[in-house]
Fold:
Amino acid sequence: STGETGPVTVLSKAFSQTTPEPARQTTPDPPRQATPDPAHQTTPEPARQTTPDPARQATPDPAHQTTPDPARQATPDPAHQTTPDPARQTTPEPARQATPEPAHQASLPLTVCAQGNQSGMHSAGEVQMCQLILPCHSNQLGELSTGQLLKWMDSTACLAAERHAGMACVTASMDDIQFEEIVKVGQVISIRARVNRAFKTSMEVGIDVSVQDVVSSLLKRVCVAYSTFVGKPTGEQRVSLKPVDLRGGVEELEHSLASERRRLRLSNEEAFSNLTLNYLTVRDKGAWSRGDAASRVSTELTRVESTELVLPPHANHHGNTFGGQIMAWMENAAAVAASRLCGSHPTLRAVDMFSFRGPSAVGDRLVLKAMVNNAFQTRVEVGVRVEAYSCEEWNQAKPRHINSAFLIYQLPNTEGHTHTFPDITFTTQAGERRYFAAIVRRRIRMAKKHILYSREEGSLSVPWDKSNQAYLGYNNVAGLTVLAGRQGWEASSISSKGGVFVHEDANLLCMKVEMKVQIPASHAYSLLSDLTLRPLWDKHYLSCEEVERGNEEETVYHIKCSPISGAQSHDFVLLLSKRQPCKDGDPFVIALRSVTVETVLPVKDRVRSEANCAGFLIHRSGPTACEVCYYTQVTSGVLPYVAGNLAGLSRSMEDTASSCIAFLEQHLLTTAF
Structure:
């Protein structure tokens, strides 16, 4: 898909205004300086062919009236030509300012946005579009229509892709869109697109949208998105894209992450199938509660169907339907479906993916079908499907599925209050499938956010000293107790021996593993509180040695972990704090957190990682049985070991839990209790 002619004109004309002709700005015309009057007569300008001075004063040039120069009127030609006006060297010619071309007027916002750019420099392969938001671009709330923004984003991304490929390109998908800011009428948006990485026949284009307030010049990010484009050669030409020229640390980082994002896209189907199977198992085991169905809204009440006829203005320069226009129509249908659920005007906050499956052309009839799939308290997912018909297919009822997308809406906050969507229910088998598929997609979005866009925290370790061990131990145990007390854990997988649960609150991600073990709780406590035994059942632990011991309940360990996917090995320095129950019903507690010890310094061949809060709670469930719950707060150091589980690409946590259960039930107890 491609852009419209307007944005292309904006880009081409912008450089003629922001970078004026060097010859006219730096040095005057040499012939006019060397021989003033003759040169003026031999190469007359159209506006100066009537040379008599009185005539010029009697019927002055309109451009000269707008910016009059007294010196030029008092000494007409000689003084004016021998001593050029400095103002003419620093600003464009007045005549061109007085009557600018329409394209130059459209490109004015580019200058404004360039001033707001922090660096002021653009990459060689970058394409930028700027637009002043007018009422015709807005919705009923006076905000920039998301559909219009999607058109501009697709246009700019296509220009960047074609600039790199040197051939026509079409959109394959656009995903990972997170909207952070609302754009108002009168503001200026800047859309920058650049190819992050080129593969054999496809390339990833990164899109960055920012908004600038004209009055305050304050610049804010609106959204970031990633599009995949495919080269469209002519005739028998083969597509072989050239590598991207990297010119900085940011470009190198995006180049590296583009490969990881592509891997996730290609493995998305496998991850989706695995996670769907897990959630259906959770449902079948009765661990999924839907509450009172009578108070829920049926998804069938949100169904929307809209038909659009593709006209010539909707086509791109390839002759196909403009992809940005299709996305705009899809967003419109999705917004109607979401508003039917909440009875208000929700705001688009994210797009899971626009997936283009096939082309359509002028004359096609596009049928857009939208429906709410699931509601997650403050957010709702709407699915949209686009079917295309030619005139013959329309009569024969033979649709072509050309696009699908999943859009996430949120109700705007009013007076600091966050509004929630009504709970929903499904009444058909297809509705149930969409209901659980939305849960799986939310899980995958969560994994992407933490895997691809996790930020380095500050130091999580605290200095270890025997003099402050009482405080550190209390803080360690209290942190684990608070983590375990969180409400709303979501089951990820369930088995007869336990399950894996996930909890996300803002940017804090936590995981819990439940294990049902047929041994007394005191025996499990004795075995698990000795970390030197953990390499026997945890494949991620290469070794674990005691570094320093405080009292009987506080011990510092140095753990060396195995590398993940060929990456560098990690190590941890952890304080273990263990507590026995104070009364019946209380659990055994084994809390872990990172500390710094002078005797164990980081080494070059290992990455010193940190854990903020982790540990075990062991509950009695009978004389010879107990339930062991392992909790961990996911930090950047812990993330590599749980990323596969989050994305649905592995079952490493389930496998480790099974190994732990087998170890506890089979290992001979050698520690006195």
